[in-house]
Amino acid sequence: MNKNFVASSSLDGIVKIYDVRIGSISAVQEFISPFPLLSFDISCDNQFVVAGSEQVDGNLNKKNNRSFANKGFVSDDQVGIFIWDARMDKKEYAVFTETHSNDISQIRCHKQSNMRFMSGSTDGLVCLYDFSETIDEDDAMLFSSTTDISIQQLGYVGSNSEFFYCVTDMNTLSLWSDDCTLVKDYGSLINEDESKGPLIDYAVNCDFNEADNSLYLTTGDISGNLDVFNVEIGGVNHLTRLIGGHSDIVRCIEFNFAHNTAITGGEDGLICLWSAI
């Protein structure tokens, strides 16, 4: 997305796009779904918006006359993946409701193909889709696999997005090929013994740097200290520690690899800017 725009989604079921240049709290575009939203992403060419929902009471679908992209929902439809085409007036393009059975915690759009994306859910399923030739859910699904653990984060890895990483709610990390073949299971990231390395209470995020074709993992401890690792096939290698910024759990980190900086946000209410990462 252009650096002048900010996007958000909410349990109100709306993805909103803001233009920071106009100095207004009003969104310049809105994409409305009938279900509360937990995750979303925007295609590499900014044409499509894809969002994943929270699990809902399917019995309310008929009562509330819920529909999307000319599809009415039935009681079995409890979670949805909603796709909008930003070029269309109505915008509603397609909806997938049959694959996942619980909250869709992650949506990640492909870095090179505007009609490919993957989804991850608290049901443990990872699904990869391509809707370039069909919007039928079964036919659009390329591959799927299960981690048997609730999924927290997903992200594409590689110059052609030929791999993806998966972080679960149990703080395990794994690397997969784009046909859902497990490449490497790194196991649990938790470390409670300082003699074995930095203390790790939780995973914060993974980030892929296209410039050096490397995947970076950030972890944290309950005191607000952060550690950054390089993730390779052979293992996870410690690079640096970020201390003195936060005093509580850190929930997010965003790297600017070009400028060698990062920005973090934590439960202590602070936003910290780090240099020389």
Written description of the protein model:
The protein is mainly beta and 277 residues long. The chain folds into two domains: 1-188, Methylamine Dehydrogenase, Chain H; 190-276. The chain is 3% helix and 50% strand. It is built from two helices and 24 strands. A four-stranded antiparallel sheet has the order 4-5-8-9, with no helix packed on it. The chain has a four-stranded antiparallel sheet with strand order 10-11-12-13. Strands 14-15-16-17 form a four-stranded antiparallel sheet, with no helix packed on it. It is globular. The two termini are 24 Å apart. The model has no long low-confidence stretch (mean pLDDT 94). Keywords: Repeat, WD repeat. This is WD repeat-containing protein 89. It comes from Smittium culicis. InterPro entries: WD40/YVTN_repeat-like_dom_sf, WD40_repeat_dom_sf, WD40_rpt, WDR89.
Bulk shape: globular
Q: Report the structural category.
A: mainly beta
Tally the helices.
Answer: 2
Q: What is the total number of structural domains?
A: 2
CATH topology group of the largest domain: Methylamine Dehydrogenase, Chain H
Helix content: under 10%
Q: Return Rg in Å.
A: 19 Å
Could you name the CATH class of the largest domain? Mainly Beta
Mean pLDDT: 94
In CATH, the architecture of the largest domain is: 7 Propeller
* Lateral arrangement of strands in the main beta sheet: 4-5-8-9
- Tell me the series of helices and strands, N- to C-terminal: EEEEEHEEEEEEEHEEEEEEEEEEEE
Query: Sheet bearing the most strands, described?
Result: 4 strands, antiparallel
Strand content: over 45%
Low-confidence stretches: none
DSSP strand tally: 24
CATH superfamily of the largest domain: YVTN repeat-like/Quinoprotein amine dehydrogenase
Ends: how far apart? 24 Å
